[in-house]
Amino acid sequence: MVTSSVPRLVIAAPSSGSGKTTVATGLMAAFAARGLAVSPHKVGPDYIDPGYHALATGRVGRNLDAYLCGPELIGPLFLHGAGGCDIAVVEGVMGLYDGAAGEGELASTAHVAKLLRAPVVLVVDASSQSRSVAALVHGFASWDPEVRVGGVILNKVASDRHEELLREALDSAGVPVLGVLRRVVQVDTPSRHLGLVPVAERRAAAVEAVRAMAAQVSDGCDLDALRALARSAGALACAAWDAGEVLDSSPPPPLPVPSPGAAAPGPPLRPEGPRPQTPDGLVAVEELGPQRVGGGSGRRETRPRTPGGLDVAALGSRVRVAVAGGPAFTFSYAEHAELLTAAGAEVVPFDPLRDEQLPDGTRGLVIGGGFPEVYAAELSANEPLRKAVAALAESGTPVAAECAGLLYLCRELDGQPMCGVLDAGARMSERLTLGYRDAVAVSDSALAVAGTRMRGHEFHRTVVEPGSGAAPAWGVRSPVRRVEGFVQQGVHASYLHTHWAAQPGVARRFVERCRTS
């Protein structure tokens, strides 16, 4: 059994808006300023906070989502990101005990803290209370005996007298005060319809905000005590996740496939009992082992494959996969590029706001999430790139688009011409669509064979009409059974954000399709 222990803290709060991001980001930057290698992590699917974490630490911010990836991958993914680091700081999501709706503790900050065997630091907005803070902290610290609340940081404290009253009350709660932060306007970061404005859209201002957070945390918190608390985390009995190794894992059998246009299937979209650590699920069971190719006249030859189905010979030459980035497309999980690379791709970023052509030799295209609605006019004005994307899709080249990428492939977005790959229109909406989703692939695509199980997340204030094509991408079980998304030629486009670490064969299949299309 492999065991590993990286000093670590989970920064949590009773509710959203308490100051988790300020404290977590400031703490990361403060530790980094002391010369420590800091590993930044975020509980849940959020793409924006990790950008601020990366500024604070100089390392890639990584997500830990027990719903998208499964509880069994939390430890391995954490160790993958924290390798070689002196300390790790994990920012929680919502309130400490808030998780996936209807799923108990699943994917909550408390759940992840338990999986990581990590102490919790509770950030409390003390702006409208004094003695009551003791009851609040006592309740959170005693609610689940498996969650260890090792300290509290009081935020938005008004004055010395206010601090005195709070400390006096907490003396009886048995939870030490590890920091006190006063109300400081300059650490605020601007927000809009989906949360904080991403770092890529305000880099200079974001750098200054992170510096202000670091200064506030350094001045108001006991960094030595926090580091000592981090050292008390228990050892993890698992190995670090590795993109190359998981591509060779065995797949579970596919589920029954619903017919296009029908409701998603009724049975659970996840197998009962423990999930395999690295499920693949992208080739039928009988396809494992040597793969047979070619032979239009019935003659077939066998190419050597790894146990997971990777073409050994093809791994010697890489195919170029263009990945959209820049201010309009900032949503991406780091493990996606790592899996693509491990599967044999050369990942090349490009900016749809500025680049008029796709990278030379592009054999596949990935367009993730972001804010195209904010940049609709600029994206539309880049007509040469829109035409290049449309031509690439028309040629049958694999294209994977999530949420913002879906909007970019539509005919138009809020009246602005887009790429026109999909016969659908997109527009802003006042309604927020938010939540985790159970899904199963409805149609064979460059990402998955029909029947592949996946868990995803939706987060948008836009509407695409129609919501699905003749060959839908996914059958979604909750909150309403429906089909959604588009599969046509090599294109897979959907609102669903997915984490490929849960299904690493997605990257393998995509790269193999890029190689053969």
TrEMBL record:
CDD domains per the UniProt record, alphabetical:
CobB_N, GATase1_CobB
Q: Which residues form the CobQ/CobB/MinD/ParA nucleotide binding domain?
A: 9-194
Where does this protein have compositionally biased stretches of type Pro residues?
250-277
Q: Which UniProt keywords apply?
A: ATP-binding, Cobalamin biosynthesis, Glutamine amidotransferase, Ligase, Magnesium, Nucleotide-binding
Q: Where are the annotated segments for Disordered? A: 248-311
What general EC class does the enzyme of this chain belong to? ligase
The keyword Ligase is assigned to this record: yes
Query: Which pathway does the database say it acts in?
Result: Cofactor biosynthesis; adenosylcobalamin biosynthesis; cob(II)yrinate a,c-diamide from precorrin-2 (aerobic route): step 9/10
Q: Where is the CobB/CobQ-like glutamine amidotransferase domain?
A: 320-503
UniProt cross-references to Gene3D superfamilies, sorted A to Z: 3.40.50.880, P-loop containing nucleotide triphosphate hydrolases
Instruction: Tell me the Pfam families matching this sequence.
Output: CbiA, GATase_3
InterPro entries assigned: CbiA/CobB_synth, Class_I_gatase-like, CobQ/CobB/MinD/ParA_Nub-bd_dom, GATase_3, P-loop_NTPase
Enzyme Commission code(s) on record: 6.3.5.9
* Catalytic residues as annotated in Swiss-Prot or TrEMBL: C403
Instruction: Provide the reaction this enzyme catalyses.
Output: hydrogenobyrinate + 2 L-glutamine + 2 ATP + 2 H2O = hydrogenobyrinate a,c-diamide + 2 L-glutamate + 2 ADP + 2 phosphate + 2 H(+)
* Nuclease listed as a keyword: no
Site (Increases nucleophilicity of active site Cys) location in chain = H497
Cofactor(s) listed in the protein's UniProt record: Mg(2+)
Q: How does the entry describe the domains?
A: Comprises of two domains. The C-terminal domain contains the binding site for glutamine and catalyzes the hydrolysis of this substrate to glutamate and ammonia. The N-terminal domain is anticipated to bind ATP and hydrogenobyrinate and catalyzes the ultimate synthesis of the diamide product. The ammonia produced via the glutaminase domain is probably translocated to the adjacent domain via a molecular tunnel, where it reacts with an activated intermediate.
Note, other:
The a and c carboxylates of hydrogenobyrinate are activated for nucleophilic attack via formation of a phosphorylated intermediate by ATP. CobB catalyzes first the amidation of the c-carboxylate, and then that of the a-carboxylate.
State what this protein does: Catalyzes the ATP-dependent amidation of the two carboxylate groups at positions a and c of hydrogenobyrinate, using either L-glutamine or ammonia as the nitrogen source.
Q: Which family does it belong to?
A: Belongs to the CobB/CbiA family.
Output this protein's name.
Hydrogenobyrinate a,c-diamide synthase
Q: Which organism is it from?
A: Streptomyces shaanxiensis
